[in-house]
Amino acid sequence: MSVITTQRDGDILVIVSDNPPVNALGHAVRAGLAAAISEAAGDDGIKAVVIRCDGRTFFAGADITEFGKPPLAPSLPDVVDAIEQCPKPVVAAIHGTALGGGLEVALGCHYRIAVPSAKLGLPEVKLGLLPGAGGTQRLPRVAGVADALSMIVTGDPVDAARALEIGLVDRLAGADTLAEDAIAFARDVAARAGHPVSSLRTDRIAEAANHPQVFDKFIAENARRLKGFDAPKACVEAVRAAVDRPFDEGIRLERELFMKLVSGTQSKAMRHLFFAERQAAKIDGIPADTPMIDIARVGILGAGTMGGGIAMNFLSAGLPVTLVEREQAALDRGVATIRKNYERTAARGRMTAEQVEAAMALLTPTLAYEDLADCDLVIEAVFELMEIKKEVFRRLDAIVKPGAILASNTSYLDIDEMAAETKRPEAVVGLHFFSPANIMRLLEVVRGARTSPSVLKTVMALAKKIGKIAVVSGVCPGFIGNRMLRPRQTEAQKLLLEGASPWEVDAALTEFGFPMGPFQMADLAGLDLGWTAEGSTSSTIREVLCERGRRGQKTGSGFYDYDDNRRGAPSPETEAIIAEFAAKSGLPQRKFSADEIRERLLYPMINEGAKILEEGMAQRASDIDIVWLNGYGWPAYTGGPMFWADTIGLKTVLDGLERQADALGPDFTVSSLLKSKAGAGETFN
Ligand code: T1G
Ligand code: NAD
């Protein structure tokens, strides 16, 4: 059965694509489209054409799995040109997501009609690319330069209503009558003398032609988004050509830029992450027919930094939440923080006041554990102390109904030990959210030795429902993310005693693309996490900073000194404290290059990642990449720690670790998986 079929409705030819799961514009689809268009062009009985897709969405773009393989004709640009040059008007009938090459096909059509729920976008920049089938030249001509620039450089889609507003679609169809409405629209336009041809339009680019500063303004306003990424800059250059140059020249430049990006490491890295994110959702060894547990009510224990944010995820997804604390003040504080966060979101126009009240109405705050009895899932976020966790699991096991899932938000502790405190170890799992829990998309799902397939499948599906990217980890201290963070933090601390400054160390990582370095991160989280004045012994730099009241951004100083806008500056006081400790350490002092610092911090992390793989604590290397991308700000254009290691070569990492063996110390061991793969010239992914 061909993925492209045609149907006649009187003098209208309807071209239908059916290429599940997302009608990607692979070779068969392109060839089918080209053949159908030439059929329409050659048949006088046909007055107009409709292109629509079966399944859950209109074309969601080029087939990403074809990139890097030998190209097969017809190319997508050729197909789009053929549609545009068709002597009969062509109407694109859009539902689901018209993305990338899919929107470019629609832009090649003379008219576009969409259902109200449709989304339209050019997300290529999120794959380290730019639209490569005329999108950078046709979208500005159809929707105007400002909206085109924003859509192409951010990669974010617009909804159908906005698309209508900016002229990207010409008409909205009924939610369930797209096929009929599209044929009716085609019949209407068939009677018209002329039809709009996107590539020939200039009406929407004229204004920008007179105001070229629109581009510089855009670049200035999006400097942070553009930093380190090649594709966004290329996107701006291509859209600028749509204004400054004739269409064909603009298309030539688009093609040139596309070919350069598609063969570059950044796009390879970001395409890796696209598929890695989808792979992460798959758990090896869980049969497809594994039953799931219905989650209708969620309980959260502890309304502190994490408990409140965790609760918001479920409230925002329309799930009622019972929030339990041990004292009224803490409960009131937690509820107030939830409301404040929602009201801030509403103030930014991303929620309505009604939506805030609807979410808050789903929240039941209480001091009574018994109110958790009817929950289908209870997540504890109490203090990170094993004795308290164990006591909590014993109480929950006694109170919460049979069949319900008991979960821990612990950052480091042993889930199996907690499970052993219950009569339902198969229903115990780790759900490790990241702070702020209502924002950060990563969720480490910690699979205990006895956690059942049903519980795992249920929490993975729930994670998708609350907009999280879930990654499965085995039970080990710090799971995947924090376990790899530890050697990095350790080496960062040691570098201070060997002559490097906190600002040099941080700069080495921010240059690499991290949003902040280890010392900026420590100041943000607070240097006094787990510190008490009574127990302080001035034995570490961190303790001395805390003793001196330098506890991080919240106190105006930590490693850095902060101004009123929380901008950090190197601190002479911190330098003096470090110099004292360095002198006491007796270690030789020297200058470190940024490359040396990066090797010293990142290679041990990769080594720990390899150990996590060899121990089976992560299902696949790409899962580790997804953890670091979504939980720790690893720069997307390098693909994550394991993909980056593959890019620079595992031998390079191994040689670097061996070169630093003395500095890393006697307790440091190199992963045997890393050694064997480096020796065999293999990669992790
Ligand atoms: N090519 C190949 N496979 C794709 C694909 C694509 N474009 N899009 C999705 N898949 C696979 C995906 O890997 C998964 O497979 C399954 O489909 C379901 O996807 C020339 C250069 C459309 C919003 O960037 O954003 O056009 O894991 O789990 O959550 O200018 O998929 O089941 O085996 O994500 O409902 C531009 C990419 C391409 C859009 C649906 N297009 N896709 O989300 O399902 S570049 C994109 C998405 C381009 C031209 C250029 C989402 C979705 P599996 P899913 P979903
Ligand atoms: P927190 O100190 O801000 O909040 C803990 C809350 O639990 C307090 O409000 C306390 O009153 C309450 N509590 C303590 N014992 C209780 C009990 N027996 N019954 C009911 N409530 C009780 O701590 P947090 O930062 O939210 O951390 C909570 C958990 O989440 C810890 O396990 C921590 O490791 C983990 N975690 C923290 C972060 C982070 O960045 N803070 C990130 C991920 C995971």
What compounds are bound to the protein?
A: (2S,3S)-3-hydroxy-2-methylbutanoyl-COA, nicotinamide-adenine-dinucleotide
Give the C-alpha Rg.
Answer: 28 Å
Strand content: 5-15%
Total beta strand runs: 19
Residue runs with pLDDT of under 50 for 5 or more positions: none
Instruction: State the secondary-structure class.
Output: alpha/beta
What value does the average pLDDT take? 96
Helical run tally: 30
Helix content: 40-55%
What composes the largest sheet?
A: 8 strands, mixed
Gross geometry: globular
Measured between the Cα atoms of the first and last residue, the distance is 35 Å
**For the largest beta sheet, what order do the strands appear in spatially?**
12-11-10-13-14-15-16-17
How does this model look, in words?
- This protein is an alpha/beta fold and 685 residues long.
- The chain has an 8-stranded mixed sheet with strand order 12-11-10-13-14-15-16-17, sandwiched between helices.
- The longest helix is centred in the C-terminal third of the chain and has 21 residues, at 594-614.
- The model has no long low-confidence stretch (mean pLDDT 96).
- The site of nicotinamide-adenine-dinucleotide has 23 residues, from α14 and α17.
What is the strand and helix layout of this fold?
Layout: E1 4-9, E2 12-17, H1 27-42, E3 48-53, H2 76-84, E4 90-94, E5 97-99, H3 101-108, E6 111-114, E7 119-121, H4 135-143, H5 145-154, E8 158-159, H6 160-165, E9 171-172, H7 178-190, H8 206-210, H9 213-221, H10 223-226, H11 231-244, H12 247-262, H13 265-280, E10 298-301, H14 305-316, E11 321-324, H15 328-347, H16 353-361, E12 363-366, E13 377-380, H17 386-399, E14 405-408, H18 415-419, E15 428-433, E16 442-446, H19 453-465, E17 469-473, H20 481-497, H21 502-512, H22 518-525, H23 541-547, E18 560-562, E19 568-570, H24 572-585, H25 594-614, H26 621-631, H27 641-648, H28 650-659, H29 661-664, H30 672-679
Parallel strand pairs: 2-3, 3-4, 4-6, 5-7, 6-9, 10-11, 10-13, 11-12, 13-14, 14-15, 16-17
Antiparallel strand pairs: 1-2, 7-8, 15-16, 18-19
Helix pairs in contact: 1-2, 2-3, 3-4, 4-5, 4-11, 5-11, 11-12, 13-26, 14-15, 20-25, 21-25, 25-28, 27-28, 28-30
